[in-house]
Every structure is written in structure tokens, then in C-alpha cells.
Amino acid sequence: MKLNILWNKNDKLGLALSGGVDSVVLFHLLIDKYKDSYKELVVFHINHGLRTESYKEATFVESLAQKNKVKFYKKELHLKEKSKEQHISEEMQARSLRYQAFEEFAGLENVSKLVTAHHRNDCVENIILRLFSGRTIDYRLSIEEATIINNIEILRPMLNISKQDIEKYASQHNIKFYQDMTNFDTDYTRNYVRHKIVPHLAAINKGAEENLLEFATYYNDLNDLVRLNTLSKFIPHINKINDSKYQINLADFDILHNIEKYFLINYIINEKFNNFNVSRRAIFTALKNLASKKANISLDLKENIKLIKEYQSISVCKIEKKCYNNRIEILANDIYDGFSCDFGDYKIIITRDNNKAELGFNQSDLPLLLAPKQDGDTIKRGNIHKKIARIFIDEKIPKSLRDRLPVVKNKEGQALGVLGIGSKISKNSKYDYYLRLLKG
Length: 440
Hints:
The protein is an alpha+beta fold. It has three domains: 12-204, Rossmann fold (3-Layer(aba) Sandwich); 219-318, 2-Layer Sandwich (Uridine Diphospho-n-acetylenolpyruvylglucosamine Reductase, domain 3); 328-439, no CATH class. Helices cover 36% and strands 22% of the residues. It has helices at 21-31, 53-67, 79-86, 90-109, 120-133, 163-172, 189-197, 201-204, 208-234, 250-254, 258-272, 280-290, 388-394, 399-402; strands spanning 12-16, 40-47, 71-76, 113-115, 146-149, 152-155, 239-242, 245-249, 296-300, 305-310, 313-318, 328-330, 339-343, 346-351, 359-361, 368-371, 378-381, 384-387, 407-409, 415-418, 433-439. Strands 3-2-1-4-6-5 form a six-stranded mixed sheet, with helices on both faces. Strands 7-8-11-10-9 form a five-stranded antiparallel sheet. The chain is globular. The chain starts with 11 loop residues before the first strand and ends with a strand.
């Protein structure tokens, strides 16, 4: 079995070793056939804490490393608890926490290159997933041989090797490994693609997998070419009006293809505003609306980003949420994890993490209105409604603050709570989003 050597002889490599057949075979190759291709190997193991078997696997991986006199690092994530707390999928949370741990281990060992056991079948699954999800412009279709994640170069030397060949190698060399049974759970999207879709590709065309891989390479090359050509040609024509507004001449913009327009707008949003949360769909929908013959159009792209058409120009603007007359409205399109806005002398933070949160709310509560207390305002506590004025007295809130603290009301005008009075939300309380107030 031949690896694609993506490192140098003087490199110190980290290896992500799970205990499954793919990574154990890669470990076997690195300490045997390819032992002279690098300077030193260090094993990193992540226990996601999702299965009781994972503790046996961690012990197995540690003993495997020790037996071969390879340095070993492990981390336990308690993933199920964290994903529930932060309201994101286990798959997304697992990936994020894995690479955080890898970065930590790499720093301890001065490792700059991490080797993983992604293989050809993973590439095919990735292509299908991204085609089906629509993530085909901002993301590369197939898995790349080398990428940078969390300041570590991630190397994948097995992308040309099939799963079948890996399993055959393990059998021929009597290599022991652990089978993660959750890989067969088709409730996970990737597993569904792996077990319900990929096996049927050959029935359509024997060369289907190869055709997908070739298409992904072609697509990636074409995507890179168009993006780089567009940016190299038009970045010099982007005029900075201020830190929150960038402008392009309308005549120059109109002659571009929609894909080129997309790359240009997305470049400004990503690179100038450091915002990566505006969707491709939002930008293309806005571009369709910009084609109107109206001379002046203002379009919201979410995340406080506006696309504005004015007579002779197209502007991409970052709109800061401000408090006017001590009132601020937060719309559904405004919300994202890490959102912040000013309220008088304070800053309001919205996150999906309930750590240090004062108040929680759900998507169904939007839009929210934040404003100082009005006469007669009440909050429901249990089965009774209590006047906010009475709460201020009970909590010994100074009179000088009572008219400056924001009362949070839902779309029905019902007060959900008051920020800044020392309330802390229970860790067991579950909401879509959480609020806290900071001194500005």
C-alpha cells in the first residue's frame, strides 16, 4: 500500500489515531514501511465520550503507542453534554473540539503537521454531501490533501486508497482495531450517504465514483480560477469609503457574471468585515433583486450587512445596531451567535452558550424589543405577574440605574426579563439563545 508522502524527513508528525481500521493501518504503515520518511511521530487520541466502548478504545490506542515507543496524548471531550449545552449538532461540535485539542497537543510537542487517515471513500461521501447540501461555491467539493486548520497543517496521505484496500491490508497483516458501531447508524447524514447511497452508484455506472472524483477536481480548479481572476481584476476597483462601507462602480459591476459578483461581494464581507456567516443564497437572492431597474435599492444580507444600489454605485455596508431613544429592536435576521449591540452605556451580547447568561429566549420570541422600564411593566414569575418596579426595589437596584437597564420584551410585548439586575439563568434551562449585559 502506497502513501502519498506530504512531509519531509526532518518533520515531526502528529497522527490522529482513533483506534479504527483506517487510522490503525496508517499508524502501522508509518512505523514500518514509512518509518524513515519523517523525524518523529506523536500520537493524538480524542475520546468523544459518546460510547462506553470509547474508553476501551482509548486504552487500546495508548497501549499501541507505548508498545511501539511512540509519544501519546489523549483528551476526553464529554461531547454529549457540550453539544446539548451549546445547541449544536454532535458532528459539528466533535469536529471543532477535536481540532482544538489537536492544536493544544501540537503546541506541547512543537508539531506543525498532523496526519489523518481520510481515504478515497471519504472523498466520494464528501462530494455527495456537499452537492446535496448546496455547499459548492464556498467550499471545495472533495477533501484536500493538505489544509490549514487551527494553525496546524492537516495532511491526508491516503486519499488515493480505498476503504476496501485498507481493510484488506489490515486482514493480511493481522492488525487489531476497534469498530465504531455508530458508523453504521444511518440517522447520521454521512452514514446514510455511506450505507444507503454510495453502494448503489456502481449499479448506475461502474465508473461512478471515479467520475465524481474527476468532476470534483475539475470543479475545484474552475472555481479557484474564476475566483482568483475576479478578485485580481476587481479588488483594485473596490473603493473604501470608511471601515463600514465599501463601494464599486455600478457600470463595472453590471458587466460581471453573477458568479463574479458573488465572489466580489463575499470577499468584502469576509475580508473587510471579518464576517463569515452571510449565506451564499442570501447574496444570490440580493443579486437577483439588484437587477431591478430601480435606481435606489437597499437589501439586508443578514448579520447587519446591507447591499445598497445607488445611481452610480453598489455599496456593501456593515450596519452597527444602535440604540435610538433608549429603544432597540432585534429582528430574526439580526441574530447570530456572538451578536452584540450597544444600549446606552452597556453592551448587549447574544450567544448560544448559557455560560454567564442572564436571560434566555427562543426563535419564536423574535423580534425582541429592548427598552427601559415603562410604568406598569410586569414579569410573569410562576403563576403571578410581578411589577418590574417592585423587582427593582426587592433587588435593591439603585434609582440611578432603574431607567437605564433594558427590559427585554418578545414579539407579543410580554416582558421576558430585565438585564443587569444580577439574575443568572439555570444551567439546566434550555433556549435557542442567551442574553447578558456588559458595561460598555
